[in-house]
Amino acid sequence: MNINYAALKEFIFDKGATILGIADLSKVKKDDFLIEPELLSKFTFAISIGVKLLEGVLLDIKDHPTLLYFHHYRQVNTLLDRIALQVAFYLENQGYLALPIAASQIVDWKTQRAHLSHKRIAIAAGLGWLGRNNLLVTSDYGSQIRLVTVLTNALFINFDSQQLDFGCNECRLCINVCPAQAIKERPEDFDHLRCFEKLKEFQKKGYVGQYICGVCVKVCQGKIIR
Question: Measured between alpha carbons, how far is 131 from 169 in angstroms, rounded to an integer?
Answer without folding.
Answer: 10
